[in-house]
UniProtKB/TrEMBL annotation:
Classification via InterPro entries: ADH-like_C, ADH-like_N, ER, GroES-like_sf, NAD(P)-bd_dom_sf, Quin_OxRdtase/zeta-crystal_CS, Zn-ADH-like_protein
Name of the protein in its database record: Enoyl reductase (ER) domain-containing protein
Molecular function in Gene Ontology: oxidoreductase activity; zinc ion binding
Entries under Pfam families matching the protein: ADH_N (PF08240), ADH_zinc_N (PF00107)
Top-level taxonomic group: Eukaryota
Cross-referenced PROSITE patterns: QOR_ZETA_CRYSTAL
Species name: Periconia digitata
SMART domains named among the record's database cross-references: PKS_ER
Enoyl reductase (ER) domain: residues covered: 12-329
GO CC terms, sorted: mitochondrion
Length: 339
């Protein structure tokens, strides 16, 4: 098969190369999936440079989110369970090695492509959808009528959060760093949009809320907790999702007390170990939103990235903060025949 295999740490995405490697053989309880689209993540950039928390032993295939078609399915699963997917089923998932024409996966790492969704859009759900759903619904207890501030609202988890918050009947204030990204956030349902590069952005957000009381929930994948407290309502919940700005904040605890706020963390990846039963609840909730049309794909559409050769340019654009939503690379069918 064709794949982007990493044999030593690289300077950057421009050094990624597509080569021919053996197609992986699934173990008896595993699936083989022909990849039709692979989504990029910022951590791919860290991983190829050797700077990520999870560094597989060399050689390894880059990429971790994909969608495609089952080409080999197990005949049985441990504990006598019947396999959920059969050959020809469209699936998406997450596991190491997505920048390739084929990938092996356990059933737990796969989900069915929502009805009517493209491979491009499906490739970008696996991380963003459940992160934002678990964050807003399970951790922050979102309810109709809440005012929700979504930071970096045009990013991957941000656009998921905007749609989920709207679906639960909230009023959404989106922040982003450019007018184009603010327009994108609005096109996915945000009611208000504020550029957080403005020095007075927190005052602008506060002014939008009823009687200037502030927002009930702050969804923060950037690292803006301290500033956000200036526009958080009494009893507000601040959801710590990530640190896209690159700095881990240290927040003065007296402000948490004075504002009567809860600061809650969310670590979606760790639910597999700590609370696996909640994962089904989250995915069930998400599929309801997909099926009702309240949540649509967030694939980046300003530019198309076609073929594994374009993974490097796609990652470069992502790293330059030039993109919105999920930057997805399509893996054309003719690449599949070159196994
Ligand atoms: N807690 C969890 O379980 C979990 C799960 C998934 C992801 N995350 C984390 O959530 C964060 C966002 O993930 P994502 O997939 O949405 O990423 P993304 O699509 O790359 O979006 C990140 C956004 O952050 C904003 N940003 C602000 N400062 C930035 C900076 N210095 N450099 C780059 N971007 C900056 C950018 O928007 P503007 O240009 O508009 O500022 C960008 O759109 C990441 O830190 C990720 O690790 C956490």
């Amino acid at each position: 098969m064709k794949a982007i295999q990493v044999t030593e740490y690289l300077k950057g995405p421009e050094d990624l190369k597509v080569t021919t490697v053996p197609t992986p053989t699934p173990k008896p309880h595993e699936y083989l999936v022909a990849i039709h689209a692979a989504a990029t993540n910022f951590f791919d950039l860290l991983q190829i440079r050797g700077k990520y928390q999870n560094q597989p032993p060399f050689p390894w295939i880059s990429g971790s989110e994909f969608s495609g078609v089952v080409v080999q399915a197990p005949s049985s699963l441990p504990d006598g369970r019947i396999p959920k997917y059969k050959v020809g089923d469209k699936v998406f998932g997450g596991s190491q090695g997505a920048y390739a024409t084929h990938i092996v996966s356990k059933e737990e790492g796969l989900k069915p492509v929502p009805k009517g969704w493209s491979f491009v859009d499906a490739a970008g759900i696996y991380v963003t959808g459940p992160t934002s759903y678990a964050g807003l619904v399970v951790r922050a207890g979102i309810k109709a009528g809440d005012w929700v501030l979504v930071h970096a609202a045009a990013g991957g988890v941000g656009l998921a959060a905007v749609q989920i918050a709207k679906a639960f009947g909230a009023t959404v204030v989106a922040t982003a760093g450019t007018q184009h990204k603010l327009d994108v956030a609005r096109s996915f349902g945000a009611d208000h949009a504020v550029n957080y590069r403005d020095a007075d952005w927190a005052a602008q957000v506060k002014k939008l809320t009823p009687k200037g009381r502030g927002v009930d929930i702050v969804y923060d994948p950037v690292g803006m907790v301290a500033e956000s407290m200036k526009c958080t309502a009494w009893n507000g919940r601040i959801l710590v999702v990530g640190f896209a700005a690159g700095t881990i904040e240290k927040v003065a605890m007296n402000r948490v007390l004075l504002k009567n706020v809860s600061v809650v963390g969310l670590h979606w990846g760790a639910y597999t170990i700590n609370e696996p039963e909640m994962m089904d609840v989250v995915w069930e909730g998400l599929y309801k939103l997909f099926d009702s049309g309240k949540y649509r794909g967030i694939g980046y559409t300003d530019k198309e990235y076609v073929g594994l050769d374009s993974v490097g340019p796609a990652l470069k654009a992502l790293g330059a903060r030039d993109t919105w939503g999920k930057v997805v690379v399509t893996v054309p069918q003719d690449a599949q025949s070159k196994i």
